[in-house]
Amino acid sequence: MKTVLSTLNAKYIHTCLALRYLKAYSEPEFPVVIREFTIKDPSLNIVTDLYSQDPDVLGFSCYIWNIEETIKVIQMFKKIKPETKIVLGGPEVSYDVAHWLDRIPEVDFIVVNEGEETFKHLLTQIQNNAGYESVAGLGFRKDGKPKINGPREKLDLKTVPSPFRFEEDIASLSKRITYFETSRGCPYSCAFCLSSIEVGVRYFDPQLVKDDLIFLMDNGAKIIKFVDRTFNIRRDYALDMFSFLIENRRPGVVFQFEITADIMRPEVIEYLNEHAPKGLFRFEIGVQSTNDAVNELVQRRQNFEKLTRTVTTVRDGGKIVQHLDLIAGLPEEDYNSFRKTFNDVFAFGIEEVQLGFLKMLRGTGLRLTAEKHDYVYMDHSPYEILGNNVLTFDEIIRIKQVEDVLEKYWNDHRMDHTVKYLIQHVFESPFDFFQEFGTYWETRGWSRIGHQLEDLFTRLIGFLRESAPEALPVAESLMKLDYLERQQFKPRKPWWENTQNKEENSRILSMLAQFPEVIDGFPSLSEKDIHKHAFVTETAIDPLSDELQPHQENDYLLIALFDPKQQSTKIFTASKSSLQTKRDA
């Protein structure tokens, strides 16, 4: 009996951990082939590939981001190979099981919730042509009607074999994100989250976890993302794992964790700030809302004072990148309340702020009580809200405009100097900048087209000309700095028109070759190398200083020196008058 497990990922770089657990648990009794695709792959191509495997049993791992595409594949496949048993599993089909059996008649079985034991038991019954009533945690049809067997007892995670030792995965470890879990379950009961449904937290064998991590690093894994819902729920466990990863790290590897910031103990942060190499760890922190009344409505316990302490202490340590999540559309969080939540979080000044929209996931408490807050939401995945009693669809559209430019202008870190200036000195708040710019962006149709890097600069300039022309001299100077800092080679055509006199620039570069000491720290280079690898432009301010008031128009020079061998860039600034004075001296 040949078994094939498949899923449609959002992108190729993502790997499906669930399929590998099923394969590891089912073998060697039931050999399993894994086939992974993306949601952008044509359905016919996917069906053709799966058909070539000639499976007797074909399983799909289902999530909100792939269920609709998966249904198309199933329906097409069943037409050409109707004798194949189709099995579904995953969070999207583990709730409202009868609904899915009715909606997709091509599906034979649904594995509910944790699947390792249930799936293997099902394969045994299929192979033996036995009945299915004894398979706990299974949904199927009996006499043409949906039947859902009773739940299965929780698996002893210490008995689960490693999902990371398959030979066929090793070659791609360095190219993909490796998802990793050391525990299952969540101690919290947030009404919008599926993780809250499973009571309690269970752990895998710590030594086997460490052995797997060493194996993955030794075989080239570069990004290992822990999917534990609250990695730091046990202080001693988290500290032990952090210490292990620091001591056993390999060059270039990065570990990502979902942590709960308000329970992070100060001594753990102190340890990380002292011992963790910069860039080794990334923290994802679900803030969602800073409105206490909103958090109470979704049964979310959060101490914002302690969360602030953690985020700022980690930030000040400078070792760990932080990614903070927000959810728009929570109960009783209107537009103004969400604006405050956004600004509260942005005030931390951390690297990434993720703005998401509430999804009414099947099985969650919030979906079951949606009528209390007049929620309107999509009938099909991703079940995103369209409005509620305090947030209109018009306001949701406006917040989506914030999301679009937030990703491009903050999270991608193309213009850090510029954006910090605009949100601190020009616009009333960070939210107001992103909202006004996002609305400007959307009215011009830019959210529906692609963008070159230079386009992002010229479009921001266009927005500022209309909304804050007084800020243009400083903003344009900082934008030149942002642009040049991120170039690895001397640009042939920057986004702005370089209007200064070319002969004057040439004289400046020749002077620096002869008198590099006129600019502090400027290296001693030959005139040929300086002319080849240096770029000069005028600015209204010294963009490397804290002085943000232009004294006279374009009095400063910004000099970028590119090192093509190291693919690095050094930035220098000086006023024209000071250069002349030092040269004359």
TrEMBL record:
Residues 172-403 form the Radical SAM core domain. Its cofactor is [4Fe-4S] cluster. Keywords: Iron, Iron-sulfur, Metal-binding, S-adenosyl-L-methionine. The keyword S-adenosyl-L-methionine applies. Residues 1-133 form the B12-binding domain. It comes from the Bacteria. Gene3D superfamilies: Cobalamin-binding domain (3.40.50.280), tm_1862 like domain (3.80.30.20). SMART domains: Elp3. This is B12-binding domain-containing radical SAM protein.
